[in-house]
């Protein structure tokens, strides 16, 4: 894997949105729902998100090309990780794993736990998160399917 990881600036919002939409199409097919939040997020909203002080955004670049990204919202001692995406043609090469690890490493000192969720039918995602040490905590309803919430303690 020849990718470079680094912070995402608000100026990257357009590239992130393109990547996010491409990556989440498979999730939309799993759930028969083209209106998943990552697919309907607007450019302005994403730019604002990346500018927020409590949001840590990381990107993975192959040369000039953005091939992966993730965002974490920090609230007190918890990092809420979301929108982990890898370009469809680069999935399965370790980029998602590297972004997850980098996101944990980028957390401010006070963050003790990471939390995330994914849909119950996203068995590949669940396998990835559980392999990384995340443990299922609870489920919530997203209408016709459940969201599985997972957490990982990163500091004592
Ligand atoms: C989930 C995702 C970020 C993983 O990134 P990745 O770079 O493909 O993952 P890695 O190569 O580091 O790790 C591979 C593991 O990820 C999981 N995985 C999830 N989706 C995958 C995919 N489409 N292709 C390959 N692996 C996938 C599997 O557990 C796989 O492990 P395996 O070898 O045991 O099957 C990426 O597949 C993606 O963008 N998916 C679409 C968007 C999405 O669902 N995001 C997460 C929402 S909670």
Structural notes for this entry:
- There is one protein chain.
- It is built from five helices and seven strands, in the order βαααβββαβαββ.
- With 156 residues, it is an alpha+beta fold.
- It has a domain at 4-112: Aminopeptidase (3-Layer(aba) Sandwich), CATH 3.40.630.
- A hairpin with a 4-residue loop joins strand 6 (135-141) and strand 7 (146-153).
- Helix 1 packs across helix 3 (43-51).
- The N and C termini lie far apart (32 Å).
- Coenzyme A is lined by residues 23-24, 26-27, 84-86, 91-97, 118, 122, 124-125, 127-128.
In short:
About 35% of the residues lie in helices and about 35% in strands. With about 160 residues, it is α+β, with helices and mostly antiparallel strands.
Strand segment tally: 7
> Which residues form runs of ≥5 with pLDDT under 50?
none
The shape is globular
What distance separates the N and C termini?
32 Å
CATH architecture of the domain at 4-112: 3-Layer(aba) Sandwich
> On the 0-100 scale, what is the average pLDDT?
97
The major pleated sheet works out as: 7 strands, mixed
Strand content: 25-35%
Give the cofactors and ligands.
coenzyme A
> What is the fold-level CATH name, i.e. the topology of the domain at 4-112?
Aminopeptidase
């Amino acid at each position: 894997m020849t990718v470079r990881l680094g912070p995402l600036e608000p100026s990257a919002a357009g590239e992130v949105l393109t990547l996010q939409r491409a990556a989440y199409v498979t999730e939309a097919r799993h759930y028969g729902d083209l209106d998943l939040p990552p697919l309907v997020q607007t450019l302005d909203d994403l730019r604002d998100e990346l500018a927020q002080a409590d949001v840590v955004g990381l990107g993975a670049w192959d040369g000039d090309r953005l091939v992966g990204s993730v965002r974490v919202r920090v609230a007190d001692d918890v990092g809420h990780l979301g929108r982990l995406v890898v370009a469809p043609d680069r999935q399965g090469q370790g980029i998602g794993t590297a972004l997850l690890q980098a996101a944990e490493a980028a957390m401010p000192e006070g963050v003790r736990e990471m939390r995330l969720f994914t849909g119950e039918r996203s068995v590949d995602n669940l396998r990835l998160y559980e392999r990384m040490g995340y443990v299922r905590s609870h489920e919530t309803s997203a209408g016709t399917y459940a969201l599985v919430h997972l957490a990982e303690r990163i500091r004592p």
